[in-house]
Write a structure and sequence with these properties.
The complex is a heterodimer. Chain A is of the alpha/beta class. In chain A, 31% of the residues lie in helices and 24% in strands. Chain B is an all-alpha fold. Classes of the chains: A alpha/beta, B mainly alpha.
């Protein structure tokens, strides 16, 4: 099998080196915590409810690229596609803690859940209060009755955006938790892939897909999706995905939403724009109002080709926090 | 001729047994990766090898005061170096296994059984997995149950039996549909493939057996 070409050094060092790259790009605002793969903001005001995000690496700019102004305070980063170990989460927790507790915000995967939960126990032993919101926006990964079994994919961006906003405004952990959970509950996504990404350490693709097929429901870790079909044109593909997404919440006439067309790593802006054209037509036909559209690479899986569509339904409160300016490597809003 | 039947290992031998386990896991890295690629994201071998290499580096020449200390040291190393679900689960397995062994300075069948059963309970609590979910519990639980029947056997015979129970358990995961962990989204597509975590449990027990047989 052909191994992926990657511009890296020793594959064992990819996580630390990418984190160093973020620190270098941060104009002195972000630091790495000595000895663990976690980044935190250098200056966090006293009394701020900390926002700690994290997960496996290899999805950049998710998660460490979303540390910044009105975004996250820190990110605990695991190896490629593997949840961060509890000591990484705990060290980041101590660095962020400013007396009013922390919100842990991450994608809903067994590994992340267990490792963050162990870190919660460690934090509580130190007297640091922690609340957790797990993101489960992927409609393809389980039926709505088992929403708590769903994976977190590109919807992470919108939920982190809202959490970053509220945690900058409120010093009440309960309120930060409540509004972030509502953002999560209002967010739905679905992804497709036409070719796999690969793990740097092995150079091998995480799955095989015949040339003429597309994987529907692809997750963000390269784990197989829910079904494979023959390649489709963009328009019928988008129709299929939007049917699933819209009927799930459901999104209705008169709703106002934020829209994300996310590249999984190797899909061109050209393709994303063609997708966006159709998504926007469908939303217009359904009389669903688009408050904001975000298009680009936010939550990726190495060189996986494919994209996901995310909708977050807004209400007055969510809109207020979404509209706050934000600045980070991976996402900036004026 | 007197044939020595080993009833127990001392602390250094126990440590060496787990160094042997570590080497064995390391040697099976690609095998585990292939198994994981069939139903997961293919990082299980890399993670397990990373964890057990760290175990070898950190406990290689260390002296311990109890079996519990050996196990909990291994657990903490695995927890902090593997990451992902495997780190939490295999870290919890060894840390849980150490629970009632802080005063023990020999490794016997009784200790083996205590270790497997306490480890199993901790893992089930942490991962919320039950038998039949197609996880490492499906090989660990039969091994733990089997161990309770073997308390009068020599250590090597007991290890042969628990290792076989784990192997059958792992083999049985081929017929299960994953309902937990990343493989769960595969549904019926997970049929026919064994669970990689269950295979790792087999490898750990098999290498413990091989070490004791080699004495």
């Amino acid at each position: 099998m052909k191994k992926a070409k990657k511009i890296i050094n020793n594959p064992k060092n990819v996580v630390n080196e990418l984190l160093e790259g973020i620190v270098e790009a941060s104009n002195g605002k972000i630091r790495i915590i000595e000895g663990v793969s976690a980044l935190v903001k250098k200056e966090i005001p006293d009394g701020k409810v900390g926002l700690l995000i994290g997960g496996g690496s290899g999805h950049e700019p998710l998660f460490p690229g979303f540390i910044g102004v009105n975004m996250a305070d820190g990110a605990a980063c695991g190896h490629i596609f593997a949840a961060p170990a509890p000591n990484i989460v705990f060290e980041a927790t101590k660095a962020i803690s400013k007396g009013n507790g922390l919100l842990y915000l991450y994608g809903n995967y067994a590994g992340d859940n267990m490792n963050f939960d162990i870190a919660v126990e460690m934090a509580e032993e130190e007297g640091i209060a922690v609340k957790t919101v797990r993101i489960w926006d992927d409609v393809a990964s389980a039926p709505i009755e088992r929403i708590e079994d769903r994976r977190g994919i590109a919807g992470d961006l919108f939920v982190i955006k809202i959490a970053g906003g509220i945690s900058a405004r409120s010093d009440d952990l309960e309120e930060v938790f409540r509004i972030t959970a509502r953002a999560r509950d209002n967010t739905r996504s679905m992804g497709v892939s036409v070719s796999a990404g690969s793990i740097p350490e092995t150079g091998e693709p995480t799955f095989l897909l015949p040339e003429d097929e597309i994987e529907i429901g692809m997750g963000l870790h390269g784990e197989p999706g829910v079904s494979r079909e023959k390649m489709l044109d963009a328009d019928p593909l988008v129709e299929k995905m939007m049917d699933k997404i819209l009927s799930d919440l459901p999104f209705k006439e008169g709703d106002e939403i934020c829209l994300l067309i996310n590249d999984l790593g190797a899909t061109t802006m050209m393709e994303l724009l063609i997708v966006n054209r159709k998504v926007s037509q469908i939303l217009r036909d359904k009389k669903i109002k688009i408050h904001d559209t975000v298009i680009g690479s936010y939550c990726t899986c190495q060189e996986m080709a494919g994209f996901s569509i995310t909708l977050m339904k807004l209400d007055e409160e969510l809109k207020k926090y979404y509209d706050m300016p934000a600045e980070s490597l991976g996402f900036t809003k004026l | 001729m007197i044939i020595m039947v080993r009833e127990f290992l001392n602390l250094n031998e126990t440590r060496n047994m787990f160094l042997f386990v570590s080497k064995y896991i390391e040697e099976n890295k690609d095998f585990l990766t292939q198994a994981d690629k069939a139903i997961g994201d293919g990082d299980h071998g890399v993670g397990m090898a990373r964890g057990f290499i760290a175990v070898r580096e950190k406990i290689g020449s260390k002296n311990f005061n109890s079996i519990g200390e050996i196990l909990s040291s291994i657990g903490t190393i695995l927890l902090t170096t593997i990451g992902g679900a495997a780190g939490a689960i295999f870290g919890t397995l060894f840390r849980g296994a150490s629970k009632n062994l802080r005063e023990e300075d020999t490794f016997s069948v009784r200790i083996l059984s205590s270790m497997l059963n306490d480890g199993l309970e901790s893992v089930k609590q942490r991962g919320k997995a039950e038998p039949g979910n197609k996880t490492m519990v499906d090989s660990l639980e039969p091994a733990a149950i089997k161990s309770k029947e073997l308390l009068t056997l020599p250590l090597k015979d007991a290890l042969i039996a628990v290792s076989e129970a784990a192997r059958i358990g792992a083999e049985n995961t081929k017929g299960m549909i994953a309902t937990i962990g990343k493989a769960k989204t595969l549904g019926e597509r997970s049929l026919g493939h064994p669970d990689p975590g269950a295979i790792s449990v087999c490898l750990i027990l098999r290498s413990m057996m091989e070490y004791v047989l080699s004495l």
